[in-house]
Design brief:
heterodimer, A: alpha+beta, 11 helices, B: alpha/beta, 7-stranded mixed β-sheet, two-stranded antiparallel ribbon, about 25% strand, globular
Chain lengths: ~325, ~180
């Protein structure tokens, strides 16, 4: 993972100190840190409190829904979206964790959800990295919904608003890409809902409005399960078992699974997104996919054991 | 008439009989339980020959669920009971001493006899164990190189027991289809 950092007009001594801290943070999260001279396309901005930049930052932050935090020479933080700039100050614990600015502008930005990023690749990266490394914390916010994922302890806490959004089964009720990363609150006692990280990843991907594969996945990206998903923690059905069984044995792309198992595209995409983001599956190169041909026999034939079991099962389930 | 034999294996007290009973119901279940005489086990009855559950499929075929006795002194029955099986379900209680080792013992025996047999590993009695213990078992199976489903289940619950067959059917389907590719 590459992270571009732009540091604007800070004291040279502070710059050196920040670079050292950032490099250490980068190493900790296996991130390649690169310092860039131009703010465009930077993942993280670090800047002093100054009228010119502040004015620019405020303008951007009020017209678009941006994660923009400023730090001063003492390490205090300012959320520029607040009318009173002295709100929300707190000491930095890890610089890399708290100053995030999304700079890629889209011409058709109209809604809050769209302005973050049509596919929020950063959020996918954060989640995936956390699950992979099982280290660190991630605090996300979308309007009133708050979510704290502790990858080190494999715990998740959320507030009531977030819980309601996540438990709204199959309603595709929220835009997961609109979540942004913000500094974790010092007091998280208001986050009363607890669940597992796998369940959060699963629900984010199954209840979201997104009905396509998240980047960097494409229809031809093969996935291979690293382990059997913790289905007991989430809502699921027989088709999820079938997909898991296939992907545990061999690497297949979404297109291949759609063809082989004759499943709806949307269900396959949700499954792929969920197992990828939770680190349950690894993405491989297209050439690593198990070879199939366009005329491959599909799994659903009326006299297969699975088909027969489906018929018996429906009567057993109600008995 | 074609029959599909699904064998349940695992140590005594893992919930094999209970799972079969939960799946097929009392009317289709035959037990060989007797009073348990093993002093170190807190269990009133135990299986001494095999448990048997039966399901009819719409085309006349049958699914036979066979529960093997869990005591080690009945190990000699495993080969005959697993002979010709369509699939196998290994159940081990999380409360068992060294549950991961027990799972691996059964897995190794089954894979040695029939490497292509679809297998599912289930861990039961998870309500009295920690999530960390369950994950350790899952990890042990992964580390041993077994690519198969590992699920936590409650053998007493109909839905949870049905899940075992659902997943095993997926495994059977997958292995059959992969063999054709």
């Amino acid at each position: 993972m590459l992270c571009n950092i732009y540091i604007h007009q800070l004291d040279q001594k502070l710059v050196l100190s920040l670079r050292q801290t950032l490099f250490m943070s980068g190493a900790k999260f296996a991130t390649n840190i690169r310092f860039v001279n131009q703010p465009n396309n930077a993942d993280i901005w670090i800047m002093p409190q100054g009228s010119e930049l502040l004015s620019y930052a405020k303008k951007r932050a009020t017209t678009r829904y941006l994660s923009l935090w400023l730090c001063d020479d003492n390490g205090a933080l300012y959320d520029v979206r607040k009318p009173d700039l002295m709100l929300s100050t707190q000491k930095m614990s890890q610089v890399i964790d708290i100053i995030v600015l999304q700079l890629h502008k889209k011409d058709d930005d109209k809604t809050i959800a769209e302005t973050v990023d049509a596919n929020n690749t950063k959020l996918v990266r954060y989640l995936r990295l956390g699950f992979e490394q099982q280290h660190g914390k991630l605090f996300l916010q979308y309007k009133e919904a708050q979510l704290l994922i502790n990858f080190s302890e494999l715990t998740v806490k959320a507030n009531a608003v977030c819980q309601q959004m996540l438990s709204n089964k199959n309603q595709h009720s929220f835009d997961f890409t609109a979540f942004e990363r913000v500094p974790a609150p010092a007091d998280d006692s208001h986050l009363t809902y607890h669940c597992s990280p796998f369940a959060i990843g699963w629900r984010l991907m199954h209840n979201t409005k997104e009905q396509r594969l998240i980047r960097p996945l494409s229809n031809d990206t093969p996935l291979k399960l690293e382990q059997w998903p913790s289905f007991e923690q989430v809502e699921h059905d027989l088709e999820d078992y079938r997909m898991a069984s296939f992907l545990q044995k061999r690497a297949f792309s979404a297109n291949q699974i759609i063809q082989l198992l004759k499943l709806p595209e949307q269900q396959v995409f949700a499954f792929f997104n969920a197992v990828y983001i939770t680190g349950t599956a690894s993405a491989l190169l297209p050439e690593d996919a198990f070879e199939t041909t366009p005329n491959q026999p599909a799994a659903k034939s009326s006299n297969s054991l699975m088909s027969l079991w489906r018929k018996v099962r429906s009567s057993l389930a109600t008995s | 008439m074609r029959e599909h034999k699904i064998v349940f294996l695992g140590p005594m007290g893992a919930g094999k009989s209970t799972a079969i009973k939960s799946i097929v119901g009392l009317d289709n279940f035959v037990s060989t339980d007797v009073q348990n005489t093993e002093a170190n086990r807190d269990k009133a009855t135990t299986t001494v020959a095999m448990d048997y559950g039966d399901l009819s499929l719409p085309n006349g075929e049958r699914i036979r669920l066979i529960g093997t006795p869990g005591q080690e002194r009945f190990d000699f029955l495993w080969p005959s009971l697993t002979q010709g099986a369509t699939g196998a379900i290994i159940l081990v209680a999380a409360t068992e001493e060294a549950p991961a080792e027990k799972m691996l013992t059964y897995l190794n025996v089954l894979k040695e006899r029939n490497p292509s047999l679809p297998i599912l590993v289930g861990i039961t009695k998870t309500d009295v164990s920690s999530e960390a213990q369950i994950q350790q078992c899952k990890q042990a199976i992964n580390n041993a190189g077994f690519e198969l489903p590992f699920v936590a289940c409650d053998a007493r619950e109909h839905k949870s027991a049905l899940m075992l067959i659902d997943i095993l059917m997926s495994e059977i389907e997958t292995l059959e289809l992969l063999a054709q590719l």
